[in-house]
Amino acid sequence: MSAKTRPMTSVSALLKAAVIAVATFAVTAPALAAGPAHTPHREDWSWSGPFGHFDRGQLQRGFKVYREVCASCHGIKLVAFRNLMEDGGPEFSEGQIRLLASEYQVQDGPDESGEMFDRPGRLSDRFPSPFPNEQAARAAQGGAYPPDLSLIAKARTYTRGFWLSLLDLVTQYQEHGADYLHAVLVGYGQPVPADAHAQPGLHYNPYFPGGWIAMPNPLSDGQVEYTDGTPATVDQYSRDVTAFLAWTAEPHLEARKQLGFVVFIFLFVFAGLLYFTKKKVWSNVAH
Amino acid sequence: MSGHSTFDPKNPALKWFEARLPILGLAHSSFVAYPTPKNLNYWWTFGAILSMMLGVQIITGIVLVMHYTPHVDMAFNSVEHIMRDVNYGWLIRYMHANGASMFFIAVYVHIFRGVYYGSYKDPREVLWILGVVIFLLMMATGFMGYVLPWGQMSLWGAIVITNLFSAIPFVGEAVTTWLWGGFAVDNPTLNRFFSLHYLLPFMIAGVVGLHVWALHVSGQNNPTGVEVKSSSDTVPFTPYATVKDAFGMVCFLIFFAWFLFYVPNYLGHADNYIPANPLSTPAHIVPEWYFLPFYAILRAIPDKLGGVIAMFAAIVVLFFLPWLDTSKVRSARYRPLYRQFFWVLLAVCLGLGYIGAMPPEGWYIVIGRLLTAYYFLHFLVILPLLGFIEKPLPLPASITEAVLAKNGAAKPAVGA
Q: For chain B, is the Cβ count within 10 Å smaller at the N or the C terminus?
């Protein structure tokens, strides 16, 4: 009898030790894994959470910041002009967007004589990129390549460690990319640490991986004119353009969350009905 | 009434058809009259959940293919076209991408349920082996599917995994070139992965058919691990199992919907929203979460060929599980030692998954090696010995007796 219980207790002890070891390790591990970059601050965005939706005014201001500041180097080639007037986005009027599109020159063709030609943009065109190709961009930017921003809010993230990541699943925290973009945009002008080696042509930004970014500080107070009374500050510009880029990365976000809520109600009711049906069906069987 | 198929259509047209092709009788005996143990718990609904997920993946996949372009210059943008321009394209694509993860979550639950209750033992060895074959096909399908959007992680994941084959002595390089259809992962690779990604789910469906067939020959295992002895141990599949499976499926759909509608990119990688670039290597190349334990085993061995062998051995060992487990008792309920080793194995597999997600440096390497060693130790040493060392608890004489004992002898079962 004692021969039987002894291995049992030792296995239990082993199991407990293993669980404690794994738990301790998982708690301390994120500290080991964290890179040199500062962790972005978690912001409060209007589109987070199950009922999140974009602020139309913010998206319209964000588009203005994009157009007047970012667009000289960064494209949004996956976005069509028509998207700016569709539901769930900035929802500009059709007239505004027709006018906007006509201000862009879009290459078309070939025409009857086989030549490519430029014409004013139409609603169905996508935004022309500022550079024809990566090589041209690098040549104009001293070797750096300004990435297309269509998906940037989903293509960037930062690590939060194992337990916080699990928590993000429950709290629906999905805005890591937006927090990162905002942190980088307002992260310029900080004192360079003594141990950081200044790199020629690069700018110090502790939120950018490695700390040195080719993009100079793009925003300054009062740079873009706001007509709706919103403060014309770097922080506000950054929030607005981040919101706009969150929308370009996920243009059907509002439709997704709205449909999700309807589906959840349906599934919960359906599950409830099935549960009671199951109870009834099994009520005459011991199981 | 439980027991054999007694499908006897009254309708003359059905009668005529049944005499020529008894497919309705087959369906009737498989999904209506089929006797199912009455003590199955909710872990047994994952078979139905997996069938549903296979259906979801095939249907959404067929719709996606209507809009997707398998070409290195267009694949990424065609996926974004689905996300932006196709009506409800975002829904179909997120359903497919998250559906793959849900499929794996369900299959891991299904596998560990089989491991806990000893469902692989005589007479269900072939049933189990077919299940491992399905798991392998799922892994191949999942891997190739992740390559199709042609983002950074698609490309670099494909490079890392296909490069494993170059470790094969003498013919490794030739095999890798043959797999790639060239000298690097490029358009021919994407095209063949697309072709195979479309083919394999139908092969899975075929093996699932065999899996269900084998199941219906041997009958289901149950939480006691005691074979069905009489008709009082079972209930007919319909309505009992049908309604229970339906409830399990809808609960699983609620779990699925959470990911689908609220955190659709949680299980993916941000890097895969960057178009594939062969000239720029991502900082950390990490496979999909469902491969992480195997990825950890691969990296635990300092030698490339050794790592590849260990990774494949981790799956191959599952084929031999019915013979490595020497105990005559199936269910862990009546195996006091095995039950504890089961939870240790589960913790080790989760730990391997965690290590697989971490960079291979420092303590991660040491712990990865220890966990890898334990994984093989469990199957190759502990399990065979346990059958001889362990003194199992007394088994109930029948399922009915176990049910009666659970419900208390004072309260006799009604019906049954």
A: N
Second CATH level (architecture) for the domain A5-254? Orthogonal Bundle (1.10)
Q: Is the bond into A209 cis (omega within 30 degrees of 0)?
A: no
- Mean pLDDT value of segment A86-92: 97
Span B249-296, pLDDT tens digits: 999 999 999 999 999 999 999 999 999 999 999 988 999 999 999 999
User: ipTM, 2 decimals?
Assistant: 0.91
Residue contact A168–B270, C-beta within 8 A = no
* Domains in chain B: boundaries: 31-294
Give the pLDDT band of residue B415 (cuts 50, 70, 90).
Answer: very low
Q: B343 contacts in A (CB within 8 Å)?
A: 15
What DSSP designation does B275 have? B
List the beta strands (DSSP E) in B40-154: none
Query: Which residue in the set B84, B351, B413 is minimally distant from A251, CB to CB?
Result: B84
**Residue B378 gets which letter from DSSP?**
I
Cβ–Cβ < 8 Å for A52, B53: no
Question: What does the pLDDT look like over B192-232, one tens digit per residue?
Answer: 999 999 999 999 999 999 999 999 999 999 999 999 999 99
**B392: distance to nearest CA of chain A, Å?**
10
What is the dotted CATH code of the domain comprising B31-294? 1.20.810.10
Strand (E) or helix (H) holding B12 = helix B12-20
The per-residue pLDDT for B409 is 55
Nearest to B117 by CA among B56, B37, B172, B206: B37
The answer to whether residue A26 neighbours chain B at the CB level (below 8 Å) is yes
